[in-house]
């Protein structure tokens, strides 16, 4: 499991750099975020939650049943919206009320 960076969407704000617990994400000379060796990614998803432009997606590999799907997270005031783009082109959206996230 790891993350994918979309340089076309990245604005180089550095929010992902600040939250990466492994200090793996860097801003390159083009002012775009990325990880030099993506295999080093811990898969914590902190960067995905902080990216204001949805430029980082979580790669859902075959090992967890994702078959190459990706997931992005859009944080809104009271909700997190998870959008899963499946390998066959279909999209699934899951909305989570942040107030209820620790309820269970």
Question: Can you tell me about this structure?
Answer:
By secondary structure, the protein is mainly beta. The protein is 10% helix and 35% strand. Strands 1-4-5-6-7 form a five-stranded antiparallel β-sheet. A two-stranded antiparallel sheet has the order 2-3. The radius of gyration is 14 Å and the shape is globular. The protein starts with a strand and ends in a 7-residue tail after the last strand. The mean pLDDT is 86.
Task: List key phrases describing it.
104 residues; five-stranded antiparallel beta sheet; two-stranded antiparallel sheet; globular
Topology readout:
Elements: E1 2-5, H1 15-19, E2 25-27, E3 33-35, H2 46-50, E4 56-60, E5 69-75, E6 79-85, E7 91-97
Antiparallel strand pairs: 1-4, 2-3, 4-5, 5-6, 6-7
Write a compact overview of the structure shown.
By secondary structure, the chain is mainly beta. Helix content is 10%, strand content 35%.
- Give the total of beta strands: 7
Question: How many helical stretches?
Answer: 2
- Fraction in beta strands: 25-35%
Mean pLDDT: 86
Lateral arrangement of strands in the main beta sheet: 1-4-5-6-7
């Amino acid at each position: 499991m790891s993350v994918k960076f979309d340089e076309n969407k990245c604005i180089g704000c550095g929010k992902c750099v600040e939250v990466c617990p492994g200090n793996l994400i860097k801003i390159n000379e083009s002012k775009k975020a990325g990880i030099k060796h993506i295999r080093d990614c811990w898969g914590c998803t902190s960067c995905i939650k902080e990216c204001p432009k949805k430029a980082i997606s979580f790669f859902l590999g075959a090992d967890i049943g994702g078959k190459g799907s990706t997931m992005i997270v859009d944080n809104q005031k009271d909700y997190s919206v998870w959008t899963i783009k499946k390998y066959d082109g279909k999209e699934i959206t899951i909305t989570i009320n942040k107030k209820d996230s620790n309820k269970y």
